[in-house]
Amino acid sequence: MTYVSKTSLRFANRFVPRQQSEAEKVVIHLKTPDEIAMMKQAGMIVYNTHMILRDMIRPGISTAELDRVAEEVLSDHGAVPVFKNYPKKDSPNFPASITVSINEELVHGIPSPNRILKEGDIISIDCGCTYNGYVGDSAYTWAVGTVSPAVKRLLDVTQGALMEAIKTAVLPNETKDVAAATARYVNRYGYDVAREYTGHGVGKTMHEDPQVPNWWPSNAKKKGFLSHPLQPGMTFAIEPMVIAGRPDLTELGDKWTVVTKDKSLCAHYEHTIAVTEGAPIILTLPD
Ligand code: MG
Ligand code: MG
User: 11 C-alpha to center of ligand 2: Å?
Assistant: First the structure.
């Protein structure tokens, strides 16, 4: 098992196994109330951007058009898209301001003028920005036009898993409780979670420690999973990635887009939250 000191360079953070002996070296930046207030500002810009994109979604629109508008909205707010030019080993930097993943695409889809939404598609949009030095990160999956009840159920369960996981982000729980709650909720409906990708700490950069997986295996220690006690001031993204079929994933030739191997549908919802003495604050939703 290789210990990697830095979180890997993906938007939906790729899981990095860690030895238990390294637990104390994991640095979790606790935020002050002022910093949390600034993160809420970044989060609200992300929220506003998502709501504008939601209203644009219809058959016939290209994913490049959604990206163009997202970049404009972020810029109008004085925010910088964190995804644009994001580096990844052995591939070109990410070329757009949002990731747009359709149907069997799970995360990291690249917007394109040739990618036109069709009636019955589902589209996952992930958006992150930096504003006044702090990051907000959130994702939604939307239906294009009318989708079948089965597809609607996948979206509802994914969103439900996110809200259920957020409820568990309270003292004295640990990150493993958030992870386990996500999978428990999803499994109850017969779906599975993406195992290679995790939620992540958010702050001055998009990817900080801790990793917040969407499941917690029984042999977690052996698999390199580290659990961290929650503390007031911890800020992290919880992002269930839920798959209707088998959870095996692969990457397309563009070196970014992650798809299900069996082409089954998948959905992705994400909020950035702050842990407090009481209920968590959702930084990417209005109060
Ligand atoms: Mg994220
Ligand atoms: Mg995200």
Answer: 6
Instruction: Write out pLDDT tens, residues 243-281.
Output: 999 999 999 999 999 999 999 999 999 999 999 999 999
DSSP secondary structure string, 39-103?
HHHHHHHHHHHHHHHHHH--TT-BHHHHHHHHHHHHHHTT-EESSTT--BTTBPPP-SSEEEEET
Q: Mapping DSSP to helix (H, G, I), strand (E, B) and coil, where does residue 162 land?
A: helix
- Residue 19 near residue 223, CB atoms below 8 Å: no
Return d(Cα 101, Cα 63) in angstroms, integer. 9
Q: How far apart are CA 26 and CA 17, in angstroms?
A: 13
64 found inside a domain = yes
d(CA 141, CA 263): 17
Query: Which domain, by its residues, includes 273?
Result: 20-282
What CA–CA distance (Å, rounded) separates 161 from 266? 13
Ligand nearest to the CA of 83: 2
Identify the band that residue 200 occupies on the pLDDT scale cut at 50, 70 and 90. Answer: very high
Q: Which residue has the tokens 């404009």?
A: 72
Query: Is 220 among the domain residues?
Result: yes
User: For 80-97, how does the pLDDT look when each residue is reduced to its tens digit (9 = 90+)?
Assistant: 999 999 988 888 999 999
CA of 62 to the centre of ligand 2 (A): 21
Query: Would you say residue 127 lies in a domain?
Result: yes
281 alpha carbon to ligand 2 midpoint, in Å?
A: 17
Q: How many residues are listed for the chain in this entry?
A: 287
Distance between Cα 198 and ligand 1 center (Å): 8
What is the domain count for the chain? 1
Could you tell me the two tokens for 124? 């996952």
CATH number (domain holding residue 127): 3.90.230.10
Structure tokens at 56: 């644009």
Whether pLDDT at 199 is above 50: yes
In a domain, 85, yes or no: yes
